[in-house]
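Can you make up a protein sequence with its C-alpha cells?

===
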Amino acid sequence: MSILSLPQPYLLFLGDAVDERDAKTAMGLRDWAGDRCVGEFALPGVTVTTGLPRLTPAAARARGAQALVIGVAPAGGIVQPSWIPALLEALRAGLDLVSGMHTRLDDVPVLRSAALELGRRLIDVRKPRQTFPVGTGRRRSGRRLLTVGTDCALGKKYTALGLVRAFEQRGVSATFRATGQTGVMISGSGVVIDSVVADFIAGAAEALTPDAADDHWDVVEGQGSLFHPAYSGVSLGLLHGTQPDVIVMCHEAGRKSVHGLPDFDLPGLREAIDVTLTLARRTNPGVRCGGVSLNTVTLSVEAADALLEQHSIELGMPCADPIRGGARFDELVTECLRG
C-alpha cells in the first residue's frame, strides 16, 4: 500500500452542503484528526458546520494551514462548478488542495492552470497508486473484522476506528484499514476501494489485509451496503476480499429508506445480518456477527438506551453506540474478540 504524505494542518471546505451526511469527510477529520484541522471554510448559505472556527483561506494560512481539504462528498463525487472560485481563493492564499472526490482536481483546467502558476499541489486521494490482481480467496493468517451496514453514510468508519481504539486499550494488536477517502486522510494509508476497477476490488481487499500474526486484528472500514442499489458491488467485493472472521452490522436509528433513494426500504437488522453472513461464508465459512453498532445521534440518552436494549434482546447479541460508549460498547468489544 502507498503511504500518503499529505500537507497538514488542514482547512476543511464544506462547499454548499446542507446535509451533515454530505460533509462526512469534514466531520470525520474533525472527530479523528482534530489536532490537524485549523478551521472550516464554506460558501454562503451553508447550514452545516464542524464547530471549528470559520476562516477564510488567507486567515487559515496565517494560522499555519498547509492545505484545503474538500470535506464534502455529494452524490457522484463531482467537483461542483459553484466551488471553483473558493478553491481558486485557497490556491491563491498559498494552500494546496486535497480531494477525495471522483472528479480529479487535475482534470479541472482552471485549477490545473492556477496550481501550475502558483506552485501549488493538487492531491487526489482517490487517484490509484498501484494496481491489484484479481482476488484468489486464499485464507490468510491473522484475524479480521469488517464493519458492514444496512446503508451508506451511517457510521461504519466511526465504528471501525472506535473498535481499534478499544482493542488497543485492552492490549490487543490492531490496525485500522482504511477503504474510503476520509479514512485514508485520517490514517495516512489504505485503499480507496471504490476507485478500484470492479474486477479487482476483492484483490485490493486481500492486499489491504495481508497475512499477519495470529493474534493481530485488521479492523476494516466498510463501504456502501449490500442493500444499496447503487453501491452494493463495492460492498460485496470488500466482503469477499477481506474474509472477515467477524462482522459488525451498522445502522442509524430511525432511518427507514436508502440514503438518496427513498423508494427503497432498508432491510431489518436480522435480515441484513443473515444475508451478509450468507455471502461472507463464501470466503470464510467461520464468519460470525459480533453485534450491532447503532448510530443514535438523533435520540435522547433515555431513548437511545431503550432502543439499544430492545435490539440486543431481539437479536440476542450486543448492541451499542460507539460514540456513547459505556458498558454496552464494552460488551460489543468483548464479543468481537471472543474465540
Observations:
- The CA atoms of residues 52 and 301 lie 25 Å apart.
- The chain has a mean pLDDT of 94.
